[in-house]
C-alpha cells in the first residue's frame, strides 16, 4: 500500500482530531500513514506517495507553519496526489475517495476539498 502523509495545522485542537480521523481511515485501508503537526516537524514530501494537508482557517488564513511548508514544497507537491481539507463534513467519504484515487487510479492529479465531499 501507499505511504501517505497527513500534515496538519491546528489552533484549538479541532483540526488535529480531524487529521487523526483521516489518518485512521487511511490506515484501515492498509496504508502506511504518518501524521505530523506543522511547526513541530518538517517532513520531506518526496518520501510520500500522497499527502493530505489539513488546516483550519483563522482570520482569513491558514496557520503560518502550514503556509510556509506548502510554499516551500510547492514544486514537489504538484507532482503528488495531494489533498487539502478545511472542513469535516462527510469526512469518511473524503478519506475513502482519496484512498481510492491514490491506490486504484494511481493519479497524480490534485485532490482537494473545502467541504470534505469533492475529490477532483
Plain-language structure description:
- It is a single chain.
- The protein is of the alpha/beta class and 120 residues long.
- It has a single domain, classed as Flavodoxin domain (Rossmann fold, 3-Layer(aba) Sandwich), CATH 3.40.50.360.
- Helices cover 36% and strands 22% of the residues.
- The strands form two sheets. The chain has a four-stranded parallel β-sheet, with helices on one face. Strands 4-5 form a two-stranded antiparallel ribbon.
- α1 (14-28) packs across α4.
Features:
four-stranded parallel β-sheet, 22% strand, 36% helix, Rossmann fold, disordered C terminus, 120 residues
Helix content: 25-40%
Mean pLDDT: 78
- The second-level CATH architecture is 3-Layer(aba) Sandwich
Q: Report the β-strand fraction as a percent range.
A: 15-25%
Anisotropy-based shape: globular
Number of strands: 6
Q: What is the CATH C-level name?
A: Alpha Beta
Question: Quick one: biggest sheet?
Answer: 4 strands, parallel
N-to-C order of helices and strands: EHEEEEHHEH
| Neighbour order of strands in the largest sheet | 2-1-3-6
The chain-level structural class is: alpha/beta
Question: Can you give me a brief rundown of this structure?
Answer:
This protein is of the alpha/beta class and 120 residues long. The protein has a single domain, classed as Flavodoxin domain (Rossmann fold, 3-Layer(aba) Sandwich).
Q: What's the layout of helices and strands?
A:
Layout: E1 3-9, H1 14-28, E2 32-37, E3 50-55, E4 57-58, E5 61-62, H2 64-72, H3 74-77, E6 82-85, H4 91-105
Parallel strand pairs: 1-2, 1-3, 3-6
Antiparallel strand pairs: 4-5
Amino acid at each position: 500500500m501507499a505511504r501517505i502523509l497527513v500534515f496538519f495545522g491546528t489552533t484549538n485542537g479541532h483540526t488535529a482530531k480531524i487529521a487523526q480521523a483521516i489518518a485512521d481511515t487511511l490506515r484501515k485501508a492498509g496504508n502506511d500513514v504518518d501524521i505530523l503537526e506543522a511547526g513541530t516537524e518538517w517532513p520531506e514530501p518526496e518520501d510520500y506517495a500522497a499527502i493530505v494537508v489539513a488546516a483550519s482557517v483563522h482570520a482569513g488564513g491558514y496557520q503560518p507553519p502550514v503556509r510556509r511548508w506548502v510554499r516551500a514544497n510547492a514544486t514537489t507537491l504538484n507532482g503528488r496526489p495531494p489533498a487539502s481539507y478545511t472542513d469535516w463534513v462527510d469526512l469518511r467519504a473524503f478519506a475513502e475517495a482519496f484512498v481510492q484515487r491514490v491506490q486504484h487510479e494511481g493519479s497524480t492529479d490534485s485532490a482537494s476539498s473545502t467541504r470534505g465531499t469533492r475529490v477532483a
